[in-house]
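Memo to structure team: turn this sequence into structure tokens by end of day. - J.P.
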Amino acid sequence: MSKGRELKPHIGIYGRRNSGKSSLINCLAGQDVAIVSDHAGTTTDPVKKSFEITDFGPVILVDTAGIDDSGDLGKKRVDRTVRTLDIIDLALLVVTNNSWGEYENDLIGKFRGLDLPFIVIHSKSDIEEPTLVFKNKIFPITGASLFEFSSIDKRNYEELITLIRKTIPEHSYKTPTLLGDLISYGDIVLLITPIDVEAPAGRIILPQVQAIRDILDNDAVAIVLKEREVDAFLKKTKIKPALAITDSQVFVKADASIPHDIPLTSFSIMLARFKGDFDNYLKGTPRISELQDGDRVLLLESCSHHVSCDDIGRTKIPRWITGFTGKKIEYDVVAGLDILPRPITDYSLVIQCGGCMITRKQLHNRLQTAIKAGIPVTNYGMAIAYLQGIYKRAIAPFIKGERDGNIYL
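Reply from structure team:
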């Protein structure tokens, strides 16, 4: 499966072999993007296709291998199918011939375990329509009515599109504001953006671009400068920004340069509040102080990038944690949405990057295993702020009043 870089809502299509999954995806996409055959098991790997839903917007359809595939190779295909659930915003479970069994029950259980909304579709209804007995059987299991469909005569096609549009979670396609609740019309926001070895040639990184766009969308003013220009700029212009946002790697310099009556945070913490599991980050970050000799820390980079000699995830954060705790700690770094190298229970802490290249649902799914297992989670920027002694100031712009007797601070 790809690294999940598409920020459009993802719709996964699941079911047994030869149940009509590929026909459904072709029907929805309006073209032959998936191979259709009477031979079971034609789809061997997940297939992704961009598709525009009228009056809704673009989505990514994901066609998958049959959940009843057999043999050693078939098991690997099923494993890949199940792995797609981590990137899905809505699941379509396709059944046919009034058939339901353990395969479908297992999928429903997985959907619910991930809080993943789903629609059960009886396909090939032009050949065999769902019976009343079958419909009555399915409802208690799924809690929803069975949807009758045919890719041949396109029965209920518009109704299916409407149902998809209603069922996809709002947060999967609506883009909330990054900073709209912090800034007002005409406010000046200072963006401190180092140009170092990790900065892409000829451009700035995505969170910085997103911040600029959000500031403009909120009719405010963005001023972008490098960390070594901050002191001179503030002294010369006498400007008092409503907010300053810095790259986490220069937090200490920014903290010293920005007067303490000006709110200061980082791009990574901004994304943590915008897209991550912020409340669990707040709970998990102070657990850094509890790390012991022999503990293992997992760093999740949800994109793939060129690794520099002083990489933030692979080098700097481990170095800072080791220096802060004085403990002998082991570190694993996983890029993209790859499988973890060991069970999540082997880790004492999980540190997630900002997740600028993946959807909110993908990021939350990535963290759920750790959260359910009671493993504390945090974010790159929040961890860095904590390690450098400026955590309270860095999260303050996003904390509305006192929370639980100051437990997070």
